Amino acid sequence: MSTNHRKFSPDFKAKVVLELLESGKTTNEIAIQYKILPKSVQVWRKQFFENASAIYEDSVSSKKYKDELKEKEEKIENLEKTLGRTVMERDWLQKKVGSLGLIDKLSLVEPELPLSITRQCQLLKLNRTTIYYEHAEKLLDQIILNRLDEIYTEFPYYGYRRMYHTLIQEGKDTNPKQILSYMKILGIKALYPVKKKNTSMPDATHEKYPYLLKGLKVTKPNQVWASDITYIRLNHGFVYLCAIIDLYTRSILSWRLSPIMDERLTINVLNDAIHKYGNPEIFNSDQGSQYTAQNFINILVNHKISISMDSKGRALDNIFIERFWKTIKYDNIYPSGYLTIKEAHDGIDAFMHQYNNHRLHSSLGYKPPLKFYSEYFEKAA
């Protein structure tokens, strides 16, 4: 805006300053309103405060007037500071939100807020039509995934057909192909108490490892570790939980959450367990790609750990970790209803500590797992 050669009367200056004091507007807002420079407003305000008291120098109300002026000036300064902080926080938040993907942005939309969905979409830079379609579709997916997890935890021997018919009887809109796809996302397969006839071709993509636990008597800690991955439901999505259990003491030696089920998850959990507790003699897992990946196998080989893998579809091969999944889901995950990954991590961390250090096991002489673990080595020392 141009203010060259403009002259302002004392009345105009007084009007501007009085509105600044009374309206609660910022200096910039007043300057824009009257098409003047913010610096001019600041100068006039300063002059006003310096000279206003002279009019009532000898007046009884002089002190009261000065106090009111000072109070208004402090109020304006506080408002400007608050506004500046709010703008800074808003800019920071917008940068953070801008880095989120579509699913994460969708999860931030809350229909219950007084703020309209249209305005929420504008702030999140989302197409409003996307919200209604994507949100409804993701919500339906999440409901079915959560229910499949519950069914599998209760009935691990259910295949996709039984899963499908269970959901249909509950009134869910789905189909067998969709159930197979969901089970793949969850990383689950039906488990069988007896070996089924092999009706499929062997998987030639990785080296075959025998199941070493059949008939094996486990008599000490670090003799056998077992590991598995399970699905953890969240309010707006899910994550995967990987853990390693010591078969003799039932101790959970290491665990980690991840939004992606890949070899990095299993490698991080294995390295952490080895770092804390040394090497086991045998490491048992299923034949999932996260455990057959060459980078994962190399760690076991380099530490001279014998590799044991479950037969496909065998329910009893990794029974201890399967039992633990049922325990943590019924005792912690389902009742807690975690909203975010951080909330899930903090809650599961607290449960793991309680389970390892305080939960009594009848098979361990009513001692907590880690106490039973440490006592063995204390006696051996």
From TrEMBL:
It comes from the Bacteria. GO terms for biological process: DNA integration; DNA transposition. Keywords: Coiled coil. Residues 217-376 form the Integrase catalytic domain. Transmembrane segments: none annotated. Residues 62-89 form a coiled coil. One of its GO terms (molecular function) is DNA binding. The keyword Coiled coil applies. The keyword Chaperone does not apply. This is IS3 family transposase.
